[in-house]
Specification:
Length: 859
């Protein structure tokens, strides 16, 4: 190639260093001749005998007037002809004033939307770029996490500290050998110069230059190009985005994670206020709302949609790309609909195809790899080795992460012969898997939901799908059956256990024997996961070939229905299960079914039928030597006695049940019996006794996974504290009960907690707040005793201002008590007497007489 060394051509280069008129022409001419000769600075130094440093100083304009001997040596080394040598010397003799630096040229693309939720990361990255060290920063993270947007914003903030800031996008580069040309294009290399790293290094020289290089993960062998530029250009800084580090010694890695998501309890917002404001400020929520408002004018987080918006952000793991894709769907769909789509995808059995929503970004100005979550993940997955790709498929069978030991067992069962640890490490290195520590200090491999869905779809489309599904199913059903497995281990692996059960229901029904179904039922009910039980257990009942296993599932579904106040369904399921258990001679199963039937009858107002069912359960249990079941039935007979005002019989039955539970070492059963004794004490205004019993009950299960039981005990404790005049402690217990009950959706205890807060409002003479809280309580309370009590107390609040309405409430309460045979407890009579004696202020102390909801009668 012939290089034009005329002043016009040299001016293209001198523009980078200062114009030819201000003394930059010799630097430009020197660079032009060296590049024409295809020489690096080192090679020219060897040919001419002039040091590399001196050559660099002349090309950068630091040396203003080189010596004549230096100029001649360079001309000889460059092999210039006579005419070229004369022009070369003339350029060197020209007067050269100090070079003027043209600073602040920023050629970064400007995103069309704002950067949200990255203030801390931006501050950290900007600090690194503007400080003396490090000279190279790599932002790593999974696809769609926002690396490019963060890098562009940080580069724009740091740009004033650099003479030039350039952007290089490597997404379209297919081979490592093409990186140098892409960098040359990114720095706007002048026409005529070859697109090589030498040319780029010569252009940058020792100028303060920031280079933002995007999407490096698929051309990692070209990392040496970055190292070469850093070594040649002492004031160059490089900001790289890549799903994996470049592994250079100068590299400073910053891993970028998803945006913060709402805690499970944060979405339960009942009214505008601090909780709603806090939810709106969370980065993931703020991003979703900002992007949704762009396609649906006026979209915002409200009390009505707060729970669904919070759940949507959690299901999408706070991944910015996923949130933006979901926001586009909000143009025509509500948050609840999208949550339903995602939950459906999460709940599918292993190997099922097309369960995940196929969201596409409709914008035409986004890269193909960001048009969908699948495209983003596939961008990385296509670059995996065969072992890593297959292990990623196997991980698609897991839900909620994978313990390495379980992963190895499933992989072995599916015929995966390669070392699991090495393949998993490679997946972690590619940011497709993250390694976390679980609550027990054990390592756990976790996939973002976007990655898991792609992995699951890859698995479903492979010929290995059935073998992986079967291996996963057997590993986790064995864990469920294992009596040595701790409750905490099952809790950690519950999503995998549930997935295994669904897989068995679809393709391996023989795995659903009575022991397996009973183990899952016990786990779900023991943790108060009643909604989950009502969804999952009927599927197992329909699939299992063993009728007794189906009966176990029917019973478990009935218990969950009873807790959800679907008492008719609970009774029907109890009777259906009882028929099977009686035929098969299953004493424990028959007792359980009779107890459930009694609990449902009680809530339906069938007191005599309930007494008969519980009595039958005692008889069957005693005949079959099932002392534990007999103790449960006696406890529930006690609730019926308490309902009809027979305190002595109730107390005797509760104490008999408690004694049996203590003999059996049943902590959960002791908690129930102690709670019932406390409720009975509250009815009789024995507040200190009630408080002591409740403290003892909660001490038996200090970390109980059953949040419903915890919430119930706290609601009772609030009432006991009120009776003792300990208003502050009562308020604390009521608020804790409300939070715990709200978290698990336990409406009867939500009602109890709201009623106690209303009692506190009465005590502080705030009738407006009391009325509101009692009305909210009535929307949630369960059972005649609690509903009647709440109606009576609301009537007291309304009597001064609306006597007619108050009288209607009293009549409704009286009629309900008469129909169900439920008298007014002693403590309630005391409260009503105090209230009517001082109507302006309401009772000052004994706000008591709790009648616990149906949860006291254990089904």
């Amino acid at each position: 190639m012939t290089w034009d060394t005329s002043p016009a051509s040299a001016g293209i280069l001198s523009d980078m260093y200062g114009s030819a008129d201000d003394g930059g022409r010799f630097a430009a001419v020197l660079i032009a001749h060296r590049l024409r000769a295809h020489l690096s600075q080192e090679q020219l130094a060897e040919c001419s005998g002039v040091s590399v440093r001196a050559i660099g100083d002349m090309e950068r304009g630091t040396t203003q007037r080189p010596q004549g001997g230096t100029v001649r040596a360079l001309a000889q080394g460059l092999d210039l002809d006579a005419e070229e040598a004369r022009e070369f010397a003339a350029a060197a003799r020209q007067s050269r004033p100090q070079r003027q630096v043209r600073a602040g040229v920023c050629r970064l693309p400007v995103p069309s939307t704002a950067t949200i939720g990255r203030d801390d990361e931006l501050a950290d990255l900007t600090r690194l770029l503007t400080g003396p060290q490090p000279r190279m920063v790599t932002v790593t993270g999974p696809g769609g996490v926002g690396k490019t947007r963060l890098a562009l914003e940080a580069g724009r903030r740091a740009a004033p500290r650099f003479e030039t800031t350039d952007f290089v996008d490597l997404a379209a580069v297919t081979e490592p050998g093409q990186v140098a040309a892409a960098v040359a294009a990114g720095v706007s290399l002048p026409r005529g110069l070859t697109r090589t790293l030498d040319s780029v290094a010569d252009i940058i020289g020792d100028r303060a230059w920031l280079l933002v290089v995007d999407n490096f993960e698929h051309v990692l062998p070209a990392a040496g190009d970055v190292a070469l530029l850093l070594s040649r250009c002492p004031r160059l800084k490089v900001l790289v985005t890549s799903r994996v580090p470049l592994q250079l010694s100068a590299e400073h890695v910053r891993d970028l994670g998803p945006l913060a998501v709402p805690a499970p309890a944060l979405g339960y917002v009942h009214e505008p206020g601090p909780a709603l404001t806090e939810l709106r400020r969370l980065p993931s929520v703020a991003l979703l709302v900002e992007r949704a408002a762009a396609v649906r004018t006026g979209f915002e987080v409200t009390v009505a949609n707060a729970a669904d918006v919070a759940e949507l952000c959690r299901l999408l793991d706070g991944l910015p790309l996923a949130l933006e894709l979901a926001a586009a769907q909000l143009r025509l769909s509500g948050p609840a609909q999208i949550v339903g789509q995602l939950r459906s995808a999460l709940g599918r059995p292993v190997g099922e195809v097309d369960g995940a929503p196929r969201w596409q970004n409709p914008a035409v100005d986004v890269p193909d790899r960001h048009r969908s979550l699948a495209a983003t993940v596939e961008w990385s997955a296509r670059r995996l080795g065969s072992d890593e790709a297959r292990l990623l498929e196997i991980l698609g069978a897991f839900a909620g992460g994978a313990n390495p030991q379980h992963l190895a067992q499933v992989a072995a069962g599916a015929g995966f012969a390669a070392p699991v640890e090495a393949a998993a490490a490679a997946l972690a290195g590619a940011n497709l898997v993250s390694v976390r520590t679980d609550r027990h200090g054990h390592p756990r491999l976790v996939l973002l939901e976007a990655v898991r869905q792609v992995a699951a779809d890859r698995l479903a489309r492979s010929h290995r799908s059935s073998s992986v599904a079967a291996a996963h199913c057997r590993v986790f059903l064995d864990l469920l059956r294992d009596r040595d497995a701790s409750d905490s281990e099952l809790e950690t692996e519950f999503e995998n256990v549930r997935s295994a059960a669904l897989t068995a229901a679809v393709s391996l029904p023989a795995e659903l024997d009575p022991g397996t179904v009973r183990a899952l039922t016990r786990y779900l009910l023991g943790r108060g996961q009643f909604h989950e039980a009502r969804e999952t257990l009927p599927l197992l009942a329909a699939a299992t070939p063993v009728e007794s296993a189906a009966a176990v599932a029917w019973h478990g579904t009935g218990v969950a229905a009873n807790e959800d106040r679907d008492y008719a369904a609970a009774l029907a399921l109890a009777l259906r299960a009882a028929a099977v258990f009686e035929t098969t001679g299953d004493v424990v199963g028959l007792c359980d079914a009779r107890i459930l039937a009694g609990a449902a009858h009680r809530e339906l107002g069938h007191a005599d039928a309930a007494w008969q069912a519980f009595s039958d359960a005692v008889r069957v249990a005693e005949a079959g030597g099932a002392e534990g079941k007999a103790s449960v039935a006696r406890n529930n007979l006690g609730t019926l006695a308490q309902d009809r005002g027979d305190a002595e019989t109730a107390r005797t039955l509760y104490l008999d049940s408690l004694a049996a539970k203590r003999r059996l070492g049943d902590a959960a059963g002791q908690t129930v019996a102690l709670g019932n004794l406390a409720a009975l004490a509250l009815d009789q205004a024995r507040f200190a006794e009630a408080a002591a019993g409740l403290v003892e009950a909660m001490a038996l299960q200090p970390r109980s996974p059953n949040r419903r039981s915890t919430a119930y005990m706290l609601a009772l404790l609030s009432e006991a504290r009120l009776g003792l005049g300990e208003s502050a402690l009562a308020a604390t217990a009521a608020e804790q009960a409300l939070a715990a009950a709200t978290e698990v959706g336990h409406r009867p205890v939500i009602g109890m907690a709201l009623a106690r807060l209303a009692d506190l409002a009465v005590q502080r003479q705030d009738p407006t707040a009391a009325e509101t809280l009692y009305l909210q309580a009535l929307e949630n309370v369960s059972g005649v005793p609690e509903r009647a009590r709440t109606l009576e107390r609301l009537a007291v609040v309304l009597a001064p201002s609306r006597p007619a309405a108050a009288e209607r409430l009293r009549q409704e309460a009286t009629a309900a008590r008469a129909e169900a045979g439920v008298p007014v407890p002693q403590a309630q009579r005391m409260w009503l007497h105090a209230a009517t004696s001082a109507p302006a202020a309401g009772p000052a102390g004994s706000v008591t007489a709790s009648r616990p909801p149906g949860g006291r009668a254990r089904p």
